[in-house]
Amino acid sequence: MKFEIAPSILAADFSRLAEHVQQVAPFSGRIHADVMDGHFVPNLSMGPALVASLRGSIELPIEVHLMVTNPEHFVDPFVRAGADRLIFHLEVAEDPKELARRIAAQGVSAGIAINPDTPWQKVEKYLPEIDLVVVMTVNPGFGGQPFMREVLGKVSEARKAVSKYQLDVDIEVDGGIDSTTAKEALDAGANIFVAGQAIFGQPDPARAGEELMKVVQGGLLGG
Ligand code: DX5
Ligand code: ZN
Asked: Residue 211 has what pLDDT?
């Protein structure tokens, strides 16, 4: 199993985005781009144009986290922008299976995210259709919020289900991840760790990310 950090550019300086991303590239498995529509979440962030310009300036895979009410409308624009992975929210997907298949049919990896108050059981049946499940560890909408420990039970349930059915599905945690909470999520079964504030919000993002990577790689050592 791979253990990865996915820095969230929501916490980066947008005017120096490529430079900031290159700084963290050595320890990053992928870059996490948070798309917010001011409707599904009470905030606005970025769109396909930003993802396309980032795609042209970095080598790392880019995953797009769609925090939007109509994810169906945004598959094509983000595929064209060069997204490698598209994550939509279960809460707003009309037909999650069809949407995951539509994404996969374009050669893009598909993921489903669930909010803190969405029960694990609602997503379990879609596991065979996806490459990734994102267990939100904050209510989506803003970076820099405190980690919701009560969500860890769902991470364990996710890991149990993925192991039981022997699926190749990543389990990602998103929100409030730092060295302490990453270890808790790792122990619960997560293998991809999104981090915004804990990397780009630090005076030395490269160093902060390397520290976080040490924690996450503990997964490889089983410790
Ligand atoms: C929250 C976003 C997160 C956010 C994480 O709505 O989905 O990806 O950027 O930021 P931190 O790590 O600062 O909580
Ligand atoms: Zn996110």
From this structure: 96
Describe the chain by its helix, strand, coil percentages, rounded to 5.
45, 20, 35
Of 86, 115, 145, the one to substitute when testing ligand 1's pocket (max ligand atoms within 8 A of C-beta) is 145
pLDDT in tens, 102-155: 999 999 999 999 999 999 999 999 999 999 999 999 999 999 999 999 999 999
* Beta-carbon count within 10 A of 42 CB: 12
Closest ligand 1 atom to Cα of 199: 12
Helices 17-24 and 48-55 meet at what angle, rounded to 10?
Answer: 60
Residue 167 CA to residue 24 CA, distance in Å, equals: 30
Is 131 noted as a catalytic residue in this protein?
no
Low-confidence ranges of the chain (pLDDT < 50): 223
Gyration radius of the chain over CA positions: 16
Q: What is the pLDDT of residue 222?
A: 59
Closest ligand, as measured to the CA of 199: 1
Give the ranges where the chain is alpha helix by DSSP (H): 17-24, 48-55, 75-81, 96-105, 121-124, 152-164, 179-188, 197-200, 205-221
Q: How many whole angstroms from 156 Cα to the centroid of ligand 1?
A: 21
Provide the residue type at 161 as one letter: A
d(CA 82, CA 189): 29
pLDDT, one tens digit per residue, over 32-43 is: 999 999 999 999
d(C-alpha 170, C-alpha 192), whole Å: 7
Residue from 63, 31, 33 nearest 47 by CA: 33
